[in-house]
C-alpha cells in the first residue's frame, strides 16, 4: 500500500522534462474513434519517468486513458511511489482534466501528489490528487472492517 506523504515541489527542470514527456507520449496515442489524443508522464519518487498514451479499441469500453497506461507501466515495473503526473491533450482553451476512473487509480497510490494539467501551449494548472478526488474511498478503508 502506498504511504501518505507530502507533495514534493518539483525543480523547474523536472517540470519541463515532465511536460515534454507527456507531449511526446501524446504522439503515440491510438485514438481512431475519438480523435482525441492524450499523453501522460508519471514521475516516480526516485526520478524515473513512465509515459503513456490513450489506447482505444473497436470494443469501446476496452479503451484506456493515457494516465492509467502510464500508471500501469510503472506499477508493473515495480514503481508505486509517485511525485507527479503531467497530462497533455490537443485542447487549446482548456486544461486537460483526468476522468473519474483515472483519479481513482491515482488515488490508490496516495492522495498527496501532484497532477499537472496542461493546455496545448504548455501552460498548466497543478492540483493534488486529494484536491481532484476529495472524500475518496481508498485502500485504508478496506482495513476498517474485520
Ligand atoms: N482520455 C485520456 O486518455 N485522458 C484524459 O484525461 C481524458 C480522456 C482519453 C480517453 C479516450 O481515448 C479519449 O481521451 C476521449 O475520451
Structure description:
It is an enzyme of class 3 (hydrolase). Pfam families: dCMP_cyt_deam_1. InterPro entries: APOBEC/CMP_deaminase_Zn-bd, CMP_dCMP_dom, Cyt/Deoxycyt_deaminase, Cyt_deam_tetra, Cytidine_deaminase-like. By secondary structure, the protein is an alpha+beta fold. Helices cover 26% and strands 21% of the residues. It is built from 4 helices and 5 strands, in the order H-E-E-H-E-H-E-E-H. Strands 2-1-3-4-5 form a 5-stranded mixed beta sheet. The longest helix has 15 residues, at 12-26. It is globular. The chain starts with 11 loop residues before the first helix and ends in a 14-residue tail after the last helix. Bound molecules: tetrahydrodeoxyuridine. Tetrahydrodeoxyuridine binds at residues 31, 34, 36, 38, 54, 56, 63, 65-67, 87, 96, 98-99, 102.
Order of helices and strands: HEEHEHEEH
DSSP strand count = 5
Largest pleated sheet: 5 strands, mixed
Q: What small molecules does this complex bind?
A: tetrahydrodeoxyuridine
Relative strand content:
15-25%
Widest sheet: strand order? 2-1-3-4-5
Supply the number of helical segments: 4
Rounded to an integer in angstroms, the radius of gyration calculated over CA atoms is 15 Å
Amino acid at each position: 500500500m502506498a504511504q501518505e506523504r507530502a507533495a514534493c515541489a518539483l525543480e523547474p527542470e523536472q517540470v519541463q522534462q515532465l511536460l515534454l514527456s507527456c507531449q511526446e507520449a501524446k504522439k503515440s496515442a491510438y485514438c481512431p474513434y475519438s480523435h482525441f489524443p492524450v499523453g501522460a508522464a508519471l514521475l516516480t519518487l526516485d526520478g524515473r519517468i513512465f509515459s503513456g498514451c490513450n489506447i482505444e479499441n473497436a470494443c469501446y469500453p476496452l479503451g484506456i486513458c493515457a494516465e492509467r497506461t502510464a500508471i500501469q507501466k510503472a506499477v508493473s515495473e515495480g514503481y508505486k511511489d509517485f511525485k507527479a503526473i503531467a497530462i497533455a491533450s490537443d485542447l487549446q482553451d482548456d486544461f486537460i482534466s483526468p476522468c473519474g476512473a483515472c483519479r481513482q487509480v491515482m488515488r490508490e497510490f496516495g492522495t498527496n501528489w501532484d497532477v499537472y494539467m496542461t493546455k496545448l501551449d504548455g501552460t498548466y494548472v497543478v492540483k493534488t490528487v486529494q484536491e481532484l478526488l476529495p472524500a475518496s474511498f481508498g485502500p485504508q478503508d478496506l482495513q476498517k472492517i474485520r
